[in-house]
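Sample pair:
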Amino acid sequence: EFWGLTLGRNFFVSMQDFSAYDHIGGYAGPVLILQGDKDGIVPEVVSRRAADKYANAELEILPDEGHGFTPAGVQTAIEKALQMIQLSMEQRNN
């Protein structure tokens, strides 16, 4: 069991040699990565490296947020996502 999910042996075996960096970055559209500066699970350097793999990525570091955002952090994340969608739609229409 992992965070409320039952995962089998095949999952863990297949993930041993898996590198997310080998599979991301091909998408050319806008990408928003949100990271809490107090995330104890995913180091900030991982998100920075992921953002570097995309041509059009924005990394937002949310202050005083962990891996699971607080209600205020969720609201900020929603606002940032909506801003990105709005900007993307405006760029598409111009």
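The helical segments are 9-15, 44-53, 71-93.
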